[in-house]
Amino acid sequence: MSEKKVTFEAVKKNPEVKMYIEMADASLEKQGFTEHNFAHAGNVAAVAEYILMKHGNSKREIELAKIAAYLHDIGNLINRQDHSQSGAIMAFTILNKMGMDAEECATIMTAIGNHDEGCA
């Protein structure tokens, strides 16, 4: 498989990503949690972009942060508990299929896997 630069826009358009976000949001809604839909994912990505831009990060670092932010809650599809760890593995599967290189996958997996401060 050839490694390529996977973009934020490509991740947003990915059918698996769309399905997982929709189903995770529906599951959480039934459990009484706040919305974790496309608006939430997009807002978190926009905040990540803003913060990294303000700190002078490279365009690619910003792109990776946006991808991680957008995918950060997909693990809620499996279970709310430990959703950051399951989400990191799900993100790997998606991004690997999309052709992302291992180092960039690892960066995103680390961000997703560590985003839930309740697991510290």
Can you walk me through this structure?
The protein is an all-alpha fold and 120 residues long. The protein contains six helices and no strands. The N and C termini lie far apart (36 Å).
Judging from the principal axes of the Cα atoms, what is the shape? Answer: globular
Rg over CA atoms: 14 Å
By DSSP, the count of extended strands is 0
**Percentage of residues assigned to helices:** 55-70%
Brief overview:
By secondary structure, the chain is an all-alpha fold. Helix content is 67%, strand content 0%. Helix 5 runs antiparallel to helix 6 (102-113).
Write the layout of secondary structure elements.
Blueprint lengths: L7 H6 L1 H16 L7 H17 L4 H13 L11 H16 L3 H12 L7
Structure characteristics:
120 residues, mainly alpha, 6 helices, 0% strand, globular
